[in-house]
Amino acid sequence: MGSKERFYVDIMAVHPEVTGSLFMIIPKYPDGETSRFIVDCGLFQEREYSKLNEDFPFDASKIEFCLITHNHVDHTGRLPLLFKKGFRGNIYSTSATATMAPLALYDSYKVLKDVSKRNYVNELYSQADVSNTIKLFKGCPFSETIQLNNRIQATFFKNGHLIGAALILVQISYPGYEDINLLFTGDYNKNNMFFDVPELPTWVRELPIIVIQESTYGTMDSTEMSKTFDDNIIRCTSNEGTAISMVFSLGRAQEILYVLKCMQEDGRLSKEIPIYFDGKLAHQYTNLYLKGDLGINDQMKNFLPENLEMVDRGSRKEVLESLATKIIVTTSGMGTYGPAQLYIPEYISRKNCLILFTGYTAEGTLGNRLKSTEKGDVVNIGSIIRKKNADVVYTTEFSAHAKADEMIEFLKGFSDLKLVLVNHGEKETKLQFAKRVVKEVDPKMVGIMDREYFFRVNRYGLIRQMSTKFD
Ligand SMILES: [Zn+2]
Ligand SMILES: [Zn+2]
Q1: Whether residues 284 and 382 fall in one domain
Q2: Which of 9, 14, 229, 364 is the most exposed place for a label (fewest CB within 10 A)?
Q3: CA of 43 to the centre of ligand 1 (A)
Q4: Contact present, 390 and 381 (Cβ < 8 Å)
Q5: Ligand whose nearest atom lies closest to the CA of 359
Q6: Gap between the Cα atoms of 277 and 389, Å rounded
Q7: Ligand nearest to the CA of 162
Q8: Is the pLDDT of residue 1 over 50?
């Protein structure tokens, strides 16, 4: 075996498509030693893969540490299960992610508990597993290199996908050899309305590097996005209707409130129209945006619109029954959990009502099913059958992911790309995007990640791909 092949890293993805993000990384050193760590530990949300949630295809007690890119449950939601299965290492994330992760993990625990009760199966993990997991978090500042063990270091760089989100650079070293450099994009976006996202520093972009690249919107260019949210809200409220905006608790909820504030300020939306904001977790995150130390730009700290009322269990009934002109901003983003479960059945059969989904709606969720129901047809929501009279619209304009052209630009920013590993996309999307990377970026090599193959790499790129032994 050549000297180059005595120091290498195996990289494998446990997630086949978009959710359940988890990379297993195994560096092998010339002295025969091995390390073992993971990047992200997410919950599978596609119905097709829900069985994969139950276990890991590796021994959790052998994982030394875990790196987390951002606070979305499809990247963090199985951390408590990892603890339950024996993991006791540190969980490194940015400080903002470490601050917010307990909110997401306790909420996800509650949702999973409800689901397991409904299906008469045991819960995936206990509340104690959640609190023990939270104790393992180590919040790290942006742009400072952290030593994880004597051979591995990591640096978190700002990423516009979400507050606290990071691009993680992992550098693996061994005396007498040059470092192996890996960059994990997690979910990636080049900007965010709440904070500035500087370009990666030159020293990173000049490294001989392997980029593990997401591809959620790998087949859509930024020019294909159309802005419809403002016009829809204005049309509905000027007809004295009710506009309901479905939002994710973190990120999207705060963005929508800020967009409404801007519409009020430039006079397009009357400040007389009340805005009701419902969803406990969304309220908690909003409070952190206002009072916490998440790294939000000062001028964005005042993002709430006027005439805003926080709605809870006590005041919800009044909002549900009201016939007045109003805007409701509520969770969950896909309409399946949270107060949406009450608002949608109530408002779906009203004629002067607009229901607006502002993000991705996965297969099987209520938001997705409403898409295929014609106006005037009936729809079942749980055990309730309603006629769909409301307008239901979808917009992708707030997407927190870079589009294909923006990801290509990002990759072109590296001067010595040894390998791009495309992941976090639907099967066909990954393939189309990988082809585009070959054509337009032309790195030394491009690979597509799924559960079938893993990649053995060194500083100079791919050594070989090998089939994975997972199920
Ligand atoms: Zn995400
Ligand atoms: Zn993701």
Answers
A1: yes
A2: 364
A3: 12
A4: no
A5: 1
A6: 23
A7: 1
A8: no
Tokens found for residue 315? 């005041």
Interval between CA 157 and ligand 2 midpoint (Å): 17
In this predicted structure, the answer to whether residue 300 has a pLDDT above a threshold of 70 is yes
Q: What local confidence, expressed as pLDDT, does residue 7 receive?
A: 97
Per-residue confidence band for 171, with pLDDT thresholds at 50, 70 and 90: very high
Distance of CA 27 from the midpoint of ligand 1 (Å): 26
Assign 295 a pLDDT band (cuts: 50, 70, 90).
Answer: very high
Cα(first)–Cα(last) distance of the chain, in Å?
30
Shared-domain flag, residues 207 and 95: yes
Place of tokens 């952290």: 146
Q: What is the pLDDT of residues 99-115, one digit of tens each?
A: 999 999 999 999 899 88
Domain containing residue 456: CATH number:
3.60.15.10
How many of the other CB atoms lie within 10 Å of CB of 362? Answer: 16
Give which of 103, 109, 32 is closest to 78, Cα–Cα: 109
Ligand nearest to the CA of 97: 1
pLDDT band at 5 (very low <50, low <70, confident <90, very high): confident
Ligand 2 centroid to residue 119 C-alpha, Å: 26
Looking at the fold, whether 173 and 287 belong to one and the same domain comes out as: no
Q: Which of 375, 394, 413 is the last residue of a domain?
A: 394
The answer to whether 233 and 305 have CB atoms below 8 angstroms apart is no
The pLDDT value given to residue 270: 97
Ligand nearest to the CA of 217: 2
How far is the centre of ligand 1, averaged over its atoms, from the C-alpha of 383 (Å)?
A: 31
Proximal ligand: closest to the CA of 424: 2
Residues 362 and 387 in one domain: yes
Is there a single domain that holds both residue 388 and residue 434?
no
Q: Which domain holds residue 351?
A: 226-394
How many angstroms is it from 424 CA to the middle of ligand 2? 7
Expressed in angstroms and rounded, the spacing between residue 16 Cα and the centre of ligand 2 is 12
Which ligand lies nearest to the CA atom of residue 216 in the structure? 2
Domain boundary residue, one of 329, 359, 394: 394
**pLDDT above 50: residue 438:** yes
